[in-house]
TrEMBL record:
Pfam families: SPN1_m3Gcap_bd
Organism of provenance: Trametes coccinea (strain BRFM310) (Pycnoporus coccineus)
Protein name: Snurportin-1
Bias (Low complexity): 89-101
PANTHER family for the chain: SNURPORTIN-1 (PTHR13403:SF6), SNURPORTIN1 RNUT1 PROTEIN RNA, U TRANSPORTER 1 (PTHR13403)
Known function: Functions as an U snRNP-specific nuclear import adapter. Involved in the trimethylguanosine (m3G)-cap-dependent nuclear import of U snRNPs. Binds specifically to the terminal m3G-cap U snRNAs.
Single annotated GO MF: RNA binding
CC terms in the record's Gene Ontology section: cytoplasm; nucleus
Gene3D superfamilies per the UniProt record, alphabetical: DNA ligase/mRNA capping enzyme (3.30.470.30)
Region of interest called Disordered, as start-end residue ranges on this chain: 1-71, 85-152
Length: 461
């Protein structure tokens, strides 16, 4: 038993051994299924079934058939009532007596109702009070499900498009072909998103409010798995009826940054059926049109408010950069080094100062003695977590999807895997980064001359 588990642990993944289970095959099937569902939705929206029986007018053949039918001899269908006078007349008395004798007799006398049932002496009367008491019986003691309230899952649960870990290998298949897990069309059919910041994946949902935009709370941050709110609703400049796929920065209390990864709905317009490059372009364009939002009051504890400032909710909506140029040379020289670097984002941080003097008009108008909020620009450092790859023709779909691949900057390993690695390589050994494996495989493709296609570039006139 132990030897079988050890052999299975040392063997490559099943997707690498069986072509039918490979990530590339599942990705192709998922893309075909998306295209089929999209075509069905378009046909359903057009309502082509209503126009199937509609015609602009009778055709020439139908007109000729109608003329031939009119020239033929027509048969007039009439009733037989005018032949009644030709029948011999019968005696009225005989007819009346015969009809009267044939009438059925009433089964019940007239003084008794017809629906009165005859009581059965063998039937026992059941008291109603005792039956009601029986219905109100106690629940079984051994049933633990009784008395528990059923929790309805949130409609925002598992609505993010979660990427699969890119399955990479440095081996060859039985036929000697290179099977490293890198998509064959990575230079022409993919979009890269990097550097992906470290943080918590979530959804930003806005709703319609009756107050002033930016003052009344209209935005809720919900978790990826359960769809539960991560914080209280807060005001923002985002339009109502907007759903954004986001990453809540790990230091959002200090920088107030919410990273926008993708857009699902914008101002009631569904963008999930759009392709990846268009969604990212729409995201950057619409976020650049938003007006800056001033930071709210300090949320730090009272004893630390004089030295530090903490954001009660995110105020900066920063889109994660995307790149349509995914050639092998650009990946090696630009995107992979960019994934290892730290990104800097400018933010506005308030500086709390009291009234300067009684001569200042602003200070004299502050009757409550509240401090005046001044803003200063600071640079927030955001650490990278890895590289995301999206299929360019894919649409946004909830749940884990092979149409999006994840290349993390640091390796994920369990405690048992770390202990085994340290036992083999010593306490100072470090697991290899998946991004390092990805870089080595891209270099091998460049050296072997695989994937030398040049992307289409729009030349300016």
């Amino acid at each position: 038993m132990f030897n079988e588990r050890k052999a299975a642990f040392k063997a490559p993944p099943a997707s690498m051994r069986d072509k039918s289970l490979s990530q590339d095959v599942r990705r192709t099937k998922a893309l075909e299924e998306q295209k089929r569902r999209r075509a069905e939705r378009i046909d359903s929206t057009r309502q082509l079934d209503f126009f199937a029986d509609m015609t602009l007018g009778p055709s020439d053949d139908e007109a000729d058939d109608a003329d031939d039918a009119q020239t033929e001899r027509q048969i007039v269908r009439e009733g037989i009532s005018h032949f009644a006078s030709m029948l011999p007349s019968s005696t009225p008395s005989t007819t009346d007596s015969t009809s009267a004798s044939q009438l059925p007799q009433a089964p019940f006398p007239h003084n008794e109702p017809e629906n009165e049932a005859i009581p059965d002496v063998h039937m026992k009367a059941q008291p109603t009070k005792r039956s009601k008491n029986k219905r109100k019986g106690k629940a079984r003691a051994g049933d633990p499900a009784k008395g528990k309230k059923h929790v309805k899952p949130s409609k925002w649960a598992d609505k993010c498009m979660y990427a699969e870990l890119l399955e990479m290998s440095e081996g060859f298949d039985a036929s000697g072909d290179l099977r490293d897990g890198i998509p064959d069309d990575i230079e022409t059919g993919w979009v890269a998103v990097t550097p992906v910041p470290v943080g918590k994946r979530c959804l930003a949902v806005t709703h319609q409010t009756s107050g002033i935009a930016g003052v009344v709370p209209n935005t809720t941050i919900r978790s990826r798995v359960l769809g539960k709110p991560l914080m209280k609703p807060f005001p923002s400049t985002l339009p109502p009826q907007t759903v954004l796929d986001c990453i809540l920065d790990e230091n959002w209390r200090d920088n107030g940054i919410l990273h926008i990864l993708d857009v699902v709905t914008w101002k009631g317009q569904d963008l999930a059926d759009c392709e990846t490059p268009f969604r990212f372009w729409w995201r950057d364009t619409r976020l650049s049109e938003l007006s800056p939002f001033p930071p709210p009051p300090n949320a730090a504890p009272p004893e630390k408010q004089a030295t530090t400032y903490q954001f009660p909710h995110p105020t900066t909506f920063a889109p994660v950069p995307y790149h349509t140029d995914t050639t092998l040379s650009h990946l090696l020289t630009t995107l992979i080094p960019l994934t290892r670097s730290t990104r800097t984002i400018p933010i506005s941080v308030p500086v709390l100062t009291g009234p300067s003097s009684s001569d200042d008009k602003t200070a004299t108008m502050d009757l409550d003695g509240m401090p005046v909020v001044q803003l200063r620009t600071a640079q927030a450092e955001v650490h990278s977590d890895g590289l995301l790859l999206y299929v360019a023709q894919a649409t946004y779909e909830p749940g884990t999807s092979p149409l999006s691949s994840w290349v993390p900057l640091r390796a994920y390993e369990t405690h048992e895997e770390r202990m085994q690695r340290e036992a083999i390589g010593g306490p100072g050994s470090v697991a290899e980064s998946p991004l390092g494996v990805f870089e080595r495989l891209i270099k091998r493709r460049v050296q072997s001359g695989i994937g030398t296609s040049v992307p289409d570039v729009d030349m300016a006139p």
